[in-house]
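Appendix B. Chain record.
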Amino acid sequence: MSGISSAITAAEVRSSLVGSSPPLLIDVRRHAAFQGATELVQGALWRDPERVGEWASELPRACDYVVYCVHGHEVSQGVSKALRESGRAARYLAGGIEGWKTEGGELDRKPALANTRWVTRERPKIDRIACP
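C-alpha coordinates predicted for this chain:
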Protein backbone atom coordinates (compact mmCIF):
# COMPACT_ATOMS: atom_id res chain seq x y z
CA MET A 1 0.00 0.00 0.00
CA SER A 2 2.95 2.35 0.21
CA GLY A 3 3.08 5.06 -2.41
CA ILE A 4 -0.69 5.29 -2.89
CA SER A 5 -3.34 7.50 -1.38
CA SER A 6 -4.18 6.69 2.20
CA ALA A 7 -7.94 6.91 1.51
CA ILE A 8 -9.94 3.92 0.30
CA THR A 9 -13.57 3.91 -0.85
CA ALA A 10 -16.29 1.62 0.45
CA ALA A 11 -16.42 -0.09 -2.96
CA GLU A 12 -12.66 -0.73 -2.88
CA VAL A 13 -12.91 -2.15 0.66
CA ARG A 14 -15.76 -4.49 -0.34
CA SER A 15 -13.69 -5.69 -3.32
CA SER A 16 -10.62 -6.27 -1.16
CA LEU A 17 -12.62 -8.25 1.42
CA VAL A 18 -13.34 -11.00 -1.12
CA GLY A 19 -9.73 -11.12 -2.31
CA SER A 20 -7.05 -13.58 -1.29
CA SER A 21 -5.56 -11.22 1.30
CA PRO A 22 -8.34 -9.10 2.83
CA PRO A 23 -7.45 -6.19 5.09
CA LEU A 24 -8.22 -6.15 8.80
CA LEU A 25 -10.89 -3.55 9.54
CA ILE A 26 -10.41 -1.48 12.66
CA ASP A 27 -13.13 0.76 14.08
CA VAL A 28 -11.43 3.80 15.59
CA ARG A 29 -14.45 5.85 16.55
CA ARG A 30 -13.83 7.72 19.77
CA HIS A 31 -14.91 5.82 22.88
CA ALA A 32 -18.13 7.79 23.44
CA ALA A 33 -19.19 7.49 19.78
CA PHE A 34 -18.46 3.76 19.78
CA GLN A 35 -20.34 3.18 23.05
CA GLY A 36 -23.38 5.03 21.71
CA ALA A 37 -23.41 3.13 18.43
CA THR A 38 -25.48 0.04 17.70
CA GLU A 39 -23.55 -1.18 14.64
CA LEU A 40 -20.05 -1.66 13.31
CA VAL A 41 -18.68 -2.66 9.93
CA GLN A 42 -18.99 -6.42 9.57
CA GLY A 43 -15.87 -8.13 10.89
CA ALA A 44 -14.33 -4.96 12.35
CA LEU A 45 -12.55 -4.70 15.67
CA TRP A 46 -12.63 -1.60 17.87
CA ARG A 47 -9.47 0.04 19.17
CA ASP A 48 -9.20 3.31 21.06
CA PRO A 49 -7.82 5.96 18.69
CA GLU A 50 -6.37 7.89 21.63
CA ARG A 51 -4.12 4.91 22.42
CA VAL A 52 -2.89 4.02 18.92
CA GLY A 53 0.71 4.37 20.13
CA GLU A 54 0.08 1.55 22.61
CA TRP A 55 -1.68 -0.97 20.37
CA ALA A 56 -0.05 -0.32 16.98
CA SER A 57 2.97 -2.46 17.88
CA GLU A 58 0.65 -5.44 18.54
CA LEU A 59 -0.43 -5.50 14.88
CA PRO A 60 1.38 -7.82 12.48
CA ARG A 61 3.34 -5.96 9.81
CA ALA A 62 2.34 -8.48 7.13
CA CYS A 63 -1.34 -7.39 7.13
CA ASP A 64 -3.11 -4.52 5.42
CA TYR A 65 -5.39 -2.39 7.60
CA VAL A 66 -8.40 -0.21 6.93
CA VAL A 67 -9.45 2.06 9.78
CA TYR A 68 -12.66 4.01 10.01
CA CYS A 69 -14.31 6.55 12.28
CA VAL A 70 -17.73 8.17 11.98
CA HIS A 71 -17.13 10.32 8.87
CA GLY A 72 -13.59 9.45 7.72
CA HIS A 73 -12.03 12.69 8.85
CA GLU A 74 -9.35 13.51 11.41
CA VAL A 75 -9.73 10.50 13.72
CA SER A 76 -9.30 7.74 11.13
CA GLN A 77 -6.87 9.81 9.07
CA GLY A 78 -4.68 10.36 12.14
CA VAL A 79 -4.78 6.69 13.13
CA SER A 80 -3.95 5.50 9.60
CA LYS A 81 -1.02 7.94 9.51
CA ALA A 82 0.24 6.69 12.90
CA LEU A 83 -0.03 3.08 11.72
CA ARG A 84 1.87 3.84 8.51
CA GLU A 85 4.56 5.60 10.54
CA SER A 86 4.87 2.43 12.65
CA GLY A 87 5.49 0.38 9.50
CA ARG A 88 1.97 -0.94 8.91
CA ALA A 89 0.13 -0.73 5.59
CA ALA A 90 -2.92 1.29 6.64
CA ARG A 91 -5.60 3.29 4.89
CA TYR A 92 -8.70 5.05 6.15
CA LEU A 93 -12.24 4.50 4.87
CA ALA A 94 -13.38 7.58 2.96
CA GLY A 95 -16.72 8.67 4.43
CA GLY A 96 -16.25 6.54 7.55
CA ILE A 97 -19.00 4.23 8.79
CA GLU A 98 -21.65 6.72 7.64
CA GLY A 99 -20.32 6.47 4.07
CA TRP A 100 -20.14 2.69 4.42
CA LYS A 101 -23.85 2.60 5.37
CA THR A 102 -24.78 4.91 2.47
CA GLU A 103 -22.93 2.60 0.06
CA GLY A 104 -24.79 -0.46 1.40
CA GLY A 105 -21.83 -2.00 3.22
CA GLU A 106 -22.58 -4.90 5.54
CA LEU A 107 -22.87 -4.19 9.24
CA ASP A 108 -22.76 -6.27 12.41
CA ARG A 109 -24.97 -5.48 15.38
CA LYS A 110 -22.71 -4.28 18.18
CA PRO A 111 -23.37 -5.93 21.54
CA ALA A 112 -24.65 -3.37 24.05
CA LEU A 113 -21.84 -1.69 25.98
CA ALA A 114 -19.23 -3.76 24.13
CA ASN A 115 -15.82 -2.21 24.34
CA THR A 116 -13.96 -4.40 21.91
CA ARG A 117 -14.15 -7.76 20.21
CA TRP A 118 -10.41 -8.26 20.55
CA VAL A 119 -9.14 -10.82 23.00
CA THR A 120 -6.27 -9.46 25.06
CA ARG A 121 -4.32 -10.50 28.12
CA GLU A 122 -6.43 -8.05 30.09
CA ARG A 123 -9.66 -9.44 28.63
CA PRO A 124 -9.18 -13.11 27.72
CA LYS A 125 -11.90 -15.09 26.03
CA ILE A 126 -13.06 -18.16 27.93
CA ASP A 127 -14.98 -20.69 25.87
CA ARG A 128 -15.49 -23.21 28.61
CA ILE A 129 -13.96 -24.23 31.89
CA ALA A 130 -13.06 -27.85 32.41
CA CYS A 131 -13.66 -29.18 35.89
CA PRO A 132 -12.07 -32.40 37.10
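Further analysis of this model is presented in Appendix C.
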